[in-house]
Amino acid sequence: MKPNYVGTIHKIKVLTTYPEMLVRFSLQTPKETINCIISKKELADELLMLLDGTELAVYGRYNQKRQLVVVKMCVRK
Questions:
Q1: Domain range list for the chain
Q2: What are φ and ψ of residue 45, in 5° steps?
Q3: Type and span of the H or E element at 66
Q4: DSSP string, 4-65
Q5: What is the C-alpha separation between 14 and 73, in angstroms, rounded?
Q6: CA-based Rg of the chain, rounded to a whole angstrom?
Q7: Distance spanning both ends of the chain, measured CA to CA
Q8: Which backbone phi and psi does 44 adopt, to 5 degrees?
Q9: Do residues 42 and 63 touch, judged by C-beta distance below 8 A?
Q10: What are the tens digits of pLDDT across the range 12-52?
């Protein structure tokens, strides 16, 4: 089962840009802080345009390092 979470984003950081873009951020939910990672270029570009504190809904799976690998995301207002 792939988890989905809603929270505010913090600590956006570009890890690599070549050969594939890799961006990490923290998602602060009411219960916990989740370390997330995005490898899809389209999602990474959209995320980099957002400010810290923006509310975001994410959907993905966990990797071996317990990071949520984001597959889908939606900006909430």
A1: 4-75
A2: -60, -45
A3: none
A4: EEEEEEEEEEEEE-SSS-EEEEEEE-SS-EEEEEE--HHHHHHHHTSPTT-EEEEEEEE-TT
A5: 17
A6: 11
A7: 27
A8: -65, -45
A9: no
A10: 999 998 888 899 999 999 999 999 999 999 999 999 999 99
- Which tokens belong to 2? 């792939």
Please determine, looking at this structure, whether the domain spanning 4-75 carries the CATH number 3.40.50.300.
Answer: no
Structure tokens at 56: 């975001």
Amino acid occupying residue 35: N
Please state, in angstroms and rounded to a whole number, the distance separating the CA atoms of residues 74 and 2: 16
Q: Supply 45's token pair.
A: 């570009």
pLDDT at 77 over 80: no
